[in-house]
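Hi V.,

Quick status before I head out on leave. The structure for the redesign project is tokenized and pasted below; the design run finished overnight.
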């Protein structure tokens, strides 16, 4: 049963404490960002914390990993603020690198 407004988390089961901790840290960082909180996280995949990603309610995927969360959240915020960004044409934003990588929809 899915709870309304609660993101679905995969890969953070009973024995996956590192994955669970990484997932919670990302969700907390997103919630603390006024800009990102507006987008609403629908789901989060923590099976591989180095590849940790989440989906906004709009379907946009964000690849964020689990390291340097503050810097990566800031990069994501700056990317989403860019007036040239056409969110409806983007499949994902990857903020695991120094500059955000934007993956277009095909």
């Amino acid at each position: 049963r899915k709870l309304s407004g609660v993101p679905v988390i995969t890969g953070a089961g009973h024995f996956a404490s590192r994955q669970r901790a990484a997932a919670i840290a990302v969700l907390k960082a997103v919630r603390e960002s006024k800009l990102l909180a507006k987008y609403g996280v629908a789901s989060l995949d923590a099976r591989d914390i180095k590849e940790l990603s989440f989906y906004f309610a709009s379907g946009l995927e964000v690849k964020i990993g689990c390291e340097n969360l503050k810097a990566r959240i800031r990069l994501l915020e700056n990317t989403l603020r860019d007036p040239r960004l056409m969110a409806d044409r983007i499949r994902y934003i990857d903020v695991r690198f120094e500059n955000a990588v934007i993956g277009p929809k095909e």
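Above is the designed sequence. The longest strand covers residues 41-45.

G. will cover questions while I'm gone.

Best,
W.
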